[in-house]
Amino acid sequence: MAPPLPLVALNAATIGFGGAPLFEGLTLGLGRGERACLIGRNGTGKSTLLKLLAGAIEPDGGVRFLQPGATVAYLSQDPAPPPGQSVADYVTAGLRETRGEETPARHRVEAVLARVDLAGDRELGTLSGGEGRRAALARALVGDPDVLLLDEPTNHLDLPTIEWLEEELLRFKGALLTISHDRAFLNRLSRVTLWLDRGRLHRLDKGFAHFEDWAEELRARDAGARHKLERKIVREERWLQRGVTARRRRNQGRLARLDGLRRARAEWLRQPGTAKIAATTTGGRSDLMIEAEHLEKSYPAPEGGTRCVLRDFSTRIRRGDRIGIIGPNGAGKTTLVRLLIGDLAPDAGRLRLAAGLTPLYFDQRRENLDPEATLWRTLVPGGGDSLMVHGRQRHVVAYLRDFLFDEGQARQPVKSLSGGERNRLLLARLFARPGDLIVLDEPTNDLDLETLDLLVDVLDDYAGTLILVSHDRDFLDRLATGTVALEGDGRAVEYAGGYSDYLAQRGRGPEPTPKSATPGRKAPPTRPKSAPRKLGYRDQRALDRLPGEIEALEGEIVALESRLADPGLYRRDPAAFETATRELAATRGELAAAEERWLELEARREALALARETRV
After folding, report:
1. What is the C-alpha to C-alpha distance for residues 614 and 616, in angstroms, rounded to an integer?
2. DSSP label at residue 86
3. What confidence category does residue 614 fall into, taking pLDDT thresholds of 50, 70 and 90?
4. In what side-by-side order are the strands of the sheet with 348-353?
5. Inside any domain, residue 520
């Protein structure tokens, strides 16, 4: 079936903002009825691509095409509605011309504002960042455009609003392109997947649910092409070593081709980095981390009286528990977290924390980051050029590289960072310290999918306790062993499992607690987990890395054996001989361990691949 005619398109687009181009010669079209998602790591140019399609910026080369009469609505990653205007007027500007139909237009504005929970008479300058984002989303949706371009639309939205947005977009008849880290959102909406990788745009005419297998096929094909390129470079370099001087003039073309091959290989190897994240505990022995009995909390209501945020809530949280907290915006999720960690006093009830418990807190509003401070000073506020990470001294720049920051950014102010970079900086500061309780308040906002996957792997291996406030359903399903839902009127109800388990249990009424379960906590579900389809992220990274490590160790062994083969070494320098002997034994041990690990991982990979083929 031929793709629909494009409503908006880019032809041979190039852009680089004065430096190396993010992409060159990129061509893309979106037709009516297409629902596409755009995937790629942070920094690859996804937001730039959306801005080009929206006409917000001009390409350095190539052209943008828009069907005559077609309208485009664009939600940026960090919308900044202008102050001095009411929310209703700002949203109304997103309507098409209505030919005097003021009542239906006003009704549409009121309806969409009700869904994003904003009062139309509020002034834009009084909105928080999240409220400003909801206003911008309302403006994009209200006019029923022909093309809808959404950059991280679920950020700062609560789960009921995300579900409403999904329904709206499923009914949308125009062309849709969205960037999102929310896997559940992408799985439900997308029918086309676009992958922006190292300046190249790949297209799959299937939804995001098929992305992982497709990306694995592309990477395998990529590795094969890279191997062929490297073999060709080896042949050309051997020719060069045989002597080109005497044939210099007539072989300049071949030298130029070799130089081109080397540049191509450098481009192949220009893989974006991967954040290196790890979390450790203090080694404390207490099993019961938090015990809360009959907690209550109320605040003065704007209209007078009081508003109850939490009523008669009791729970016991043990070491290793992973508790997800969900609820609409304003329901009191952050208040509940602050009560549970002792940062806020309850109006009634009793709280007991494990001795010496100091939570590591990830703040969704990033209020703990000084925008004027440099990244360097943020990590070492007391001065110096190093910090302790898991008991080991690390240089600031080396530690920042673990979180994908380059050396030039170390001296830049925090205010120069993007939202995703600020989140990575917060994670860098958070995970530098050991802790038995980690509290993550909306940690997934602005993270790319690969960094998010790595974060899940790290938290899954973390031996301490987690409290997670998140609207990301996939994130909760992969991590949470229990879910606390704030259901209005101060009610907080605890469910076993993640978000999907919460949905399954929500309408069934209370279930009896088995005798073996912890008081105050439902027993975890006993349904079997589905078998993994492929190696985990870190295992795959290890499998990719080990051949190079094995080759390097083999080289070290050859060098050490060569030194020890010198019959006069012991006589000249006995200490050097003994050192080389110890190093040789240690290196041989490392080689044996690396080879054993590679064989184990390769066997697991083959077994999983065979199982996947069998299931297909």
Report:
1. 5
2. B
3. very low
4. 306-318, 288-300, 348-353
5. no
Residue 522 covered by a domain: no
Per-residue exposure over 53-87, b if at least 16 CB sit within 10 Å of its own CB, e if not:
bbeeeebeebebebbeeebbbbbbbebebeeeeeb
What residue type is assigned to position 161 of the chain? Answer: T
Query: Are 233 and 330 within one domain?
Result: no
pLDDT score recorded for residue 512: 39
Burial class (CB in 10 A: 0-12, 13-18, 19+), 33: middle
* Domain boundary residue, one of 198, 213, 228: 213
Same domain as 126, residue 46: yes
The domain in which residue 72 lies consists of 6-213
Q: Looking at the structure, do residues 227 and 209 belong to the same domain, yes or no?
A: no
3-state secondary structure of 69: coil
Does residue 571 sit in the same domain as residue 485? Answer: no
Residue type (1 letter), 574: P
In angstroms, the CA 382 to CA 19 distance is: 35
CA proximity to 535, closest of 526, 527, 543: 543
Residue 607 has pLDDT above 70, yes or no: no
Quote the crossing angle between the two packed helices 537-564 and 449-461, to the nearest 10°: 80
Q: Are residues 58 and 132 part of one domain?
A: yes
Q: How far is CA 114 from CA 88, 101, 133, 515, in A?
A: 11, 20, 15, 45
Over the stretch 424-449, which tens digit does the pLDDT of each residue have?
Answer: 888 888 888 888 899 998 888 777 78
Same domain, 189 and 204: yes
Between 484 and 260, whose confidence is greater? 484
Helix (H, G, I), strand (E, B) or coil at 114: helix
280 found inside a domain: no
Q: Please tell me the predicted confidence (pLDDT) of residue 255.
A: 53
pTM: 0.67
Distance CA(297)–CA(322), nearest Å, equals 23
Q: In this structure, what CATH number is given to the domain that contains residue 541?
A: 1.10.287.380
pLDDT digits (tens, 9 = 90+) for 449-487: 877 887 888 888 888 899 999 999 999 988 888 899 998
Q: What SS3 class is residue 62?
A: strand
Is the domain of 303 the same as that of 388? Answer: yes
Length of the chain: 616
Pick the last residue of a domain from 213, 229, 245.
Answer: 213
The count of domains in the chain is 4
Cα(433)–Cα(422) distance, rounded to whole angstroms? 18
pLDDT at 176: 96
Q: Does 302 fall in a domain? A: yes
Q: Same domain, yes or no, for 179 and 228?
A: no
Q: Which residue's structure tokens are 């000073």?
A: 377
Convert the pLDDT of each residue in 485-496 to its tens digit: 998 888 999 988
How many Å apart are CA 604 and CA 610, to the nearest integer?
Answer: 10
Q: Which CATH number does the domain housing residue 352 bear?
A: 3.40.50.300
Q: How confident is the model at residue 262 (pLDDT cuts 50, 70, 90)?
A: low
At 416, is the pLDDT very low, low, confident or very high (cuts 50, 70, 90)?
confident
CA 186/CA 177 separation, integer angstroms: 11
The letter for the amino acid at 238 is: R
